[in-house]
Write a structure and sequence with these properties.
Number of strands: 2
Distance between the termini: 7 Å
Oligomer: single chain
Shape: elongated
Largest sheet: 2 strands, antiparallel
Structural class: mainly alpha
Number of helices: 8
Helix content: 55-70%
Strand order of the largest sheet: 1-2
Number of domains: 1
Strand content: 5-15%
Order of helices and strands: HHHHHEHHEH
Length: about 170
């Protein structure tokens, strides 16, 4: 790690925490991206199940159409949820920004400015489902931290335009 890179990371710990409006803006963007991830995962899953049904006609238990086989499968539903969760976990742990967060110049990080862990990302997902954890920001006791920030030991900061241009935060 170069000395100049280390300075940039130290500065990341000094960025201001994001307010509720920026967070909701990024959430709206990321909802659209998550819907696209869901659709792509569904398309891939549908093709795999269709191929399996062609190769093995007893693959669907009641030998019904593929759509009914998919709708009644808890495993398939879990696969779709996993795909969307994986999207958020991957981007949060590999750079700290989803596409929506990048557009709004937000970054999720530990308090010292380093990247969050997979466990912290999972905690953020579970406690901040559908953005409801951001309601905590309306409280005077929030100190700029949402419920998912507090529970995961992380924070969302607003980056400067220059800091937002860095391509790969893991190299810091």
């Amino acid at each position: 790690m170069k000395e100049s890179d280390n300075t940039v990371q130290e500065n990341h710990a000094d960025f201001l925490r994001a307010g509720i409006m920026r967070r909701l803006g990024a959430l709206m963007y990321d909802t659209l991206v998550a819907m696209a991830v869901y659709a792509i995962a569904h398309f891939i899953g549908f093709i795999v199940i269709a191929l399996l049904a062609q190769l093995n006609p007893t693959f669907c238990s009641d030998n019904a159409d593929i759509q009914r086989c998919i709708i009644t499968s808890d495993i398939y539903s879990g696969y779709l949820i996993f795909a969307v969760c994986f999207f958020f976990i991957w981007f949060w742990t590999h750079g700290g920004q989803t596409l929506g967060m990048r557009a709004w110049r937000l970054k999720v990080q530990r308090m010292n400015g380093s990247s969050i862990t997979v466990l912290q990302a999972i905690i953020r997902l579970c406690t901040g489902f559908f953005g409801l954890g951001n309601v905590w920001l309306l409280s005077k006791k929030s100190e700029g931290m949402s419920l998912q920030d507090r529970m995961s030991g992380s924070e969302i900061v607003v980056l400067s335009p220059e800091a937002n241009k860095i391509k790969n935060w893991n190299q810091l």
